[in-house]
Amino acid sequence: MKVIFKTSYDNDIDLHEDWWARGKLIALVAVMAVLPFVVGEYYLAEATNTLIWSLAGMGLMLLVGHTGQASLGHAAFMAIGAYTDAALMNIGVPWMVAFPLAALAAGLFGALVAIPAVRMSGIYLAIATLALFVIVEEMIIIMEPITGGVGGIFAPSITIAGVDFDRYTSLNNFYWLCLGVVVLVTWLYANLLRSPTGRSFLAVRDSEVSARALGINVTRTRSLAFGLSCAMTGLAGALMGHYISFFNYELFSVFISINLLLVVTIGGLGFIQGAFFGAILITAVPQLISILRDGLNSTTGIDLGSVPGLDTLIFSCILIGFIIYEPAGLYGRWLKMRAWVQLFPLARRDMFRRQKTYIKTERMR
Amino acid sequence: MTLLQVEDLAVHFGGVKAVDGVSFNVEAGEVFSIIGPNGAGKSTIFNLISRFYKPTRGTIRFDGQDITAMQAHQIGQLGIARTFQNIELFDHSTVLDNLLMGRHTHRSTNWVQDMMYLPKVRRSERGHRRQVEEVIEFLELEAYRDKLIAGLPYGVRKVVEIGRALAMGPKMILLDEPASGLSVEESQEVAFWVEDMRRDMGLTVLMVEHDMSLVNQVSDRVLAVANGEALAMGTPAEVQANPQVKAAYLGTEVD
C-alpha cells in the first residue's frame, strides 16, 4: 500500500497527492483528446453525449452531493441554458458570448429562486423544484417569439474565429469543444471543493446548526450553491441544444431531471468522479440494451423492440439495487475495489461496514 | 472587565418558561460554569447566547455590544465559539476539514477567487492550516488528522468538536457538557485543557457541566439554575453549600 509522505501544507492543498495521481488524470484527458482518431462517428457522438451528461451531472452533484439539497427541476435550468444560448445566437451574438451568458442566466435564475426555496429541505424542496420545472416549461411555450413555442428553436452552428464547430459537419471539433468545457468546469469545481466556499457547502450539508455556530450564513451559502449548480447545468443545456440542433420544450422533460438524479445517485453522491461514472452508465445502458435486444432478435427471434418502458424498468432496477446495496454509488464501489487490491491480501469483509451511511440529502427531515 | 453581560434573560415556549429572568456577568479570562438538574434551562441559555432562540425578554451584551438582535451566524464572527451537547460534527469530512471549517469567520477570499484558486487563496489556506495545526497539537489529534468523523470513537469526536471551536480563534468558548459520556481519564484531560485555554490562550470559558469534580476543579464561579431561574452564584464551594441548590438537586424533606 502506498503511503504519502507529506512535507508541506501544500501537499494537502494541492488537487493531487502526487505526480502519479496527476499523471493518471493527464493520461485520461489525453486519451479523451485523441478519441476522434480512434472511434467512428457514431461512438464519438455518444461520447459527446456522455460529456454533456457529465457536465449536467456535475451541476446537480454540487447541489445534491455537496450541499445536501434535492432538486427535481434541473431540466428547467438545462432548458434555460439551451434557450438563452440559442436565442442569443439567433440574433447574431457569437457563441463565445452567448455561452457564458447562458450559464449566467441559468445561475441567476437559480439563485433567485433559491432565496425562498432554500428555506425548505428534503422532500419539500424536491416538490418545490418540480413545481418550478412545470412553470419554466409553461413559460417556454408562452414566450413564443423568443423560444419558438411548441414549434421549437434552432441552435445555430458554432463558429469561433472562423473555425467551424458544427455538431454534424465537424463533429470532431464539437467533441473537443465539449471536452474543453468539461475539463474547465471540472477544474473550477475541484478548486471550489478545496476552498473555504466548498467547505461551507459541506458544512451546511452535514450539520446546519453547527454551520451557523461557525459563522456560516446558511441561506446565503445554499443560494450560492443553488446558483452555481444551475449555472453548470445551464452550460450543459446549451451544449445539449447544439448537440440536438433543433429542439422544443419536450427535449427537457421531467425525465431529464430524474435521469440527472440517477446520474448523481448511481455515480456516487459527494464525489465529482461520481457524476462521470453516472453519466457513463446513463448513456451506455440504453445502447447496451438496444445491442442486447438486437442480438436477442437475430439469434432467437424474440422481438422486444415493441415492449414499451423496458429501458425505464431496467434503470429503476439498477437504481433500487444501488440504493440498497451500495449507497456510495459506482465511485464508492470503485474506491472499495481499489482499497481491496492495494491491501491484498489483508482486506477484510467488514472493513467498510461503518461507512455505509446515507448522506443527509436522502433523509426526510 | 466584563465580557458577557446577561440581564433578565427569559424565553418562553408557549406556557413553558424554559428560562425566566436569569442575570449574570462573565468576566474576561474567567471559567464560569452553569450547573443545575436536567431541564433546568442550562442549554437553553447557551442557545440564547448563540441566538438559536430568540429571547422573550432581556438583553445579552458581549464585549460592550448588544447581541440580542443579531443573527446566529453573526455571533461566531464576534468571537463566540461553542460546542454542542450531542456532538454536531460534519460526519462525512475528515478531522482536518472539520477543523478548517472552524476557520470560516477568518476567510479572506470570495467564491470567485476560490473557484480560480488564485495564489491569494493558497496563501490564506496555508495560514488557516497553520492555525489548525496548532489546535491539533494542543489537543493531540495528530493520529486522527485524515480520518473521517463517521469512523471515530465518541471520546475523540468530543475532542474534535472542542478543536473546531478553538480553530475559530474565539474570545469566549461555550462548552456544552464537554465531559458527558467521557471516561474519568478523558474528563481529567478536559479539565487540563480548560485550564490551558484560560492560562495560555487567554480564553474566557462558559461551561455547562454535570460532572461536579470537573466543575470544582476548573471553575472560578458557578451559577446554579433550576426551573429556568437562577438559584445561587459564587465559588463552587459556596454554591454547593447553598440550601436551595441542595434542595433542587436532592429534593426537600417532607415534614
TrEMBL record, chain A:
<feature type="transmembrane region" description="Helical">
    <location>
        <begin position="51"/>
        <end position="72"/>
    </location>
</feature>
<dbReference type="Pfam" id="PF02653">
    <property type="entry name" value="BPD_transp_2"/>
</dbReference>
<feature type="transmembrane region" description="Helical">
    <location>
        <begin position="313"/>
        <end position="332"/>
    </location>
</feature>
<keyword id="KW-1133">Transmembrane helix</keyword>
<feature type="transmembrane region" description="Helical">
    <location>
        <begin position="174"/>
        <end position="192"/>
    </location>
</feature>
<keyword id="KW-0812">Transmembrane</keyword>
<feature type="transmembrane region" description="Helical">
    <location>
        <begin position="25"/>
        <end position="44"/>
    </location>
</feature>
<feature type="transmembrane region" description="Helical">
    <location>
        <begin position="92"/>
        <end position="115"/>
    </location>
</feature>
<dbReference type="GO" id="GO:0015658">
    <property type="term" value="F:branched-chain amino acid transmembrane transporter activity"/>
</dbReference>
<feature type="transmembrane region" description="Helical">
    <location>
        <begin position="122"/>
        <end position="143"/>
    </location>
</feature>
<protein>
    <submittedName>
        <fullName>Leucine/isoleucine/valine transporter permease subunit</fullName>
    </submittedName>
</protein>
<feature type="transmembrane region" description="Helical">
    <location>
        <begin position="224"/>
        <end position="245"/>
    </location>
</feature>
<keyword id="KW-1003">Cell membrane</keyword>
<dbReference type="InterPro" id="IPR001851">
    <property type="entry name" value="ABC_transp_permease"/>
</dbReference>
<dbReference type="InterPro" id="IPR043428">
    <property type="entry name" value="LivM-like"/>
</dbReference>
<keyword id="KW-0472">Membrane</keyword>
<dbReference type="GO" id="GO:0005886">
    <property type="term" value="C:plasma membrane"/>
</dbReference>
Automatic annotation (TrEMBL), chain B:
<dbReference type="InterPro" id="IPR027417">
    <property type="entry name" value="P-loop_NTPase"/>
</dbReference>
<dbReference type="GO" id="GO:0005524">
    <property type="term" value="F:ATP binding"/>
</dbReference>
<dbReference type="InterPro" id="IPR003593">
    <property type="entry name" value="AAA+_ATPase"/>
</dbReference>
<dbReference type="GO" id="GO:0005886">
    <property type="term" value="C:plasma membrane"/>
</dbReference>
<dbReference type="Pfam" id="PF12399">
    <property type="entry name" value="BCA_ABC_TP_C"/>
</dbReference>
<feature type="domain" description="ABC transporter">
    <location>
        <begin position="4"/>
        <end position="252"/>
    </location>
</feature>
<keyword id="KW-0067">ATP-binding</keyword>
<dbReference type="GO" id="GO:0016887">
    <property type="term" value="F:ATP hydrolysis activity"/>
</dbReference>
<dbReference type="InterPro" id="IPR032823">
    <property type="entry name" value="BCA_ABC_TP_C"/>
</dbReference>
<keyword id="KW-0547">Nucleotide-binding</keyword>
<dbReference type="InterPro" id="IPR003439">
    <property type="entry name" value="ABC_transporter-like_ATP-bd"/>
</dbReference>
<dbReference type="InterPro" id="IPR051120">
    <property type="entry name" value="ABC_AA/LPS_Transport"/>
</dbReference>
<dbReference type="Pfam" id="PF00005">
    <property type="entry name" value="ABC_tran"/>
</dbReference>
<protein>
    <submittedName>
        <fullName>Lipopolysaccharide export system ATP-binding protein LptB</fullName>
        <ecNumber>3.6.3.-</ecNumber>
    </submittedName>
</protein>
<keyword id="KW-0813">Transport</keyword>
<keyword id="KW-0378">Hydrolase</keyword>
